[in-house]
Amino acid sequence: MPEDIQELGREGAATLKRWLEATTYMELPFDAYNNKIDCMVRTKSGKQKQLDLVGYMLTEKKAPVFVECKRYTSAGRQYTEFVKFLAVAYGHTAQELADYNTTRESQYYWVTFHPFNLENWSNLETYEHMKKALEAHPEYLGGDDLNESLAHEVASRVTVLVFNPKQEALSLTRAELEQIRPVLLRKVKTL
After folding, report:
1. Is residue 58 situated within a structural domain?
2. Rounded to an integer, what distance in angstroms lies between the CA atom of residue 150 and that of residue 97?
3. Which residues constitute the domain of residue 97?
4. Highest taxon of the source (predicted)?
């Protein structure tokens, strides 16, 4: 990958990390540029995929969060990559289920700087789209049949967001975030 494109990706991931953490609902301590191993997910097929940001929710069950960042200036190949992202999310969850007989209820975020596939936008987070993704990428089923219940569950944990760089000016700064976190009690010690 050319260095200038990789640098754009690094800057995009850093921007989205600041923005997502400023929601006060998640913490993303790992990024693919500094923590490669921590950003790898293993799927049912045995394939591994590196995602851009990894962390956890600060509410309820502290579910893991996996974020794929796309700093595109046009729709480009995003839809093709998004479809694969859906299959990876399913494959990762199916592998957890196979390994542990349960899942961590991971949340999967696709965050882009430019919208894509607008004609299907309202359906991107649905079971139907998850099923299409697995039909396009059956390798993520790991030779198993589609588990419809699992596909519904994983689709419900996928979130697609569009980031406009102007939103950064509307977000909490790192200093503001550190001041309000103790008041919100989202990051209260659990043990």
Report:
1. yes
2. 9
3. 3-184
4. Bacteria
